[in-house]
Amino acid sequence: MTDIGHNSELTTEQKSALRMHHVRRLLELEEEMQPLRERRKQIRAEAKGDGFKLSEIDAAIRLSTMEDTSIFVAEIKELIEIAKAFNALPPGEQGDLFPDRRPANERCFDEGKVAGLAGKNPEPPYGADSKQGQAWMKGWHEGQRIMREELQAAMEKRNAMKADETEDEPFPEAAE
Questions:
Q1: Alpha-carbon span 75 to 52, nearest angstrom
Q2: Residue 153 lies inside a defined structural domain of this protein
Q3: Is residue 35 part of a domain?
Q4: Per-residue pLDDT tens digits for 101-128
Q5: CA distances from 131 to 110, 138, 140 (A)
Q6: How many domains does the chain have?
Q7: Residues 46 and 105 in one domain
Q8: Cα three-residue angle 66-67-70, rounded to 5 degrees
Q9: For residues 75 and 61, what is the distance between their CA atoms, to the nearest angstrom?
Q10: Of 106, 146, 160, 164, which alpha carbon lies 20 to 30 A from 100's?
Q11: Residue 3 maps to a domain
């Protein structure tokens, strides 16, 4: 591998040609990414149509991809402090986030449930034979069950509502 700046011996024309080579490759990549951006936009619109705030979806995505979720919790605490400073919390509202005082097995079950809902692999961060590991796996299976049963029911209801909306529309093509 060559060091950064290795092209300092190039002529102006060579630098220009090399720069345009990289620009062309990146523009090609941008073009390839456009259908993905459009699909992302469509999925976000569907989520919004299903009644979710996009900030809610973004937060869930961020949390599901974070290595250390305590960073997210710290940011929320900071936002609560800012809200307090601007008197944005209703009177008497504490806005405090208390540490998780649930029993370890309950906490592990919920962690596994979230992993199951997110479609992650059944790999508990605890020993598989430990009580926490077993609780995590039970939670994971519960998350998977919810996804199987409840997602299907939710999608059927959503699709039925959409079908009802299009039946009420006398000229569905004109609405688009």
A1: 21
A2: yes
A3: yes
A4: 788 899 899 889 988 988 889 999 999 8
A5: 14, 10, 14
A6: 2
A7: no
A8: 80
A9: 16
A10: 146
A11: no
Residue located via tokens 């290795």: 6
Calculate the CA 86 to chain-centre distance.
Answer: 29
- Helix, strand, coil percent content, the chain, rounded in steps of 5: 70, 0, 30
Q: Is residue 6 part of a domain?
A: no
Structural domain range at position 105: 100-171
CA separation for the pair 105, 117 (Å, rounded): 18
Q: What is the pLDDT of residues 27-85, one digit of tens each?
A: 999 999 999 999 999 999 999 999 999 999 999 999 989 989 889 989 988 988 888 76
Tokens of 154: 């939710």
pTM of the predicted model as reported, rounded to 2 decimal places: 0.56
Evaluate whether 153 touches 146 at the Cβ level (below 8 Å). no
CB neighbours of residue 146 within 10 Å: 13
Q: How many other CB atoms are found less than 10 A from the CB of residue 113?
A: 21
Distance CA 145, CA 117 (A): 8
